[in-house]
Design a protein that fits this description.
alpha+beta; 3-stranded mixed beta sheet
């Protein structure tokens, strides 16, 4: 696991009661130098999201990752579910769209 991804995981695991966590580094799907940690997709399932509107869930995550968002992380795709929502979705999250900048 690389430095930024490890920091993200550590902060999320310390702050949330997570039932599921998936952190995907999608940086290689975007233009830029190899080996960077700039684009991530997070899928999180937590009872902490129950009763919160999506914008409040996103604000909660951005507040936890303020340092990463101010530095190396350029984009963060968030898929945030309560356990009930996750079950209803069949434990599936949407695929990321192709980046128009790949290969640029």
């Amino acid at each position: 696991m690389v430095k930024v991804e490890a920091a993200i995981r550590s902060k999320l695991e310390a702050a949330l009661r997570l039932e599921f966590i998936a952190i995907e580094n999608e940086s290689d799907q975007h233009s830029g130098p190899a080996g960077r940690e700039s684009h991530f997709k997070l899928t999180l399932v937590s009872e902490d999201f129950a009763g919160l509107l999506p914008v409040k869930r996103h604000q909660k995550i951005y507040a936890l990752l303020v340092e990463e968002m101010a530095g190396p992380v350029h984009a963060l795709a968030l898929h945030l579910y309560s356990p009930k929502e996750w079950q209803a979705k069949g434990k599936q999250r949407p695929n990321s769209p192709d980046c128009l900048g790949v290969g640029s």
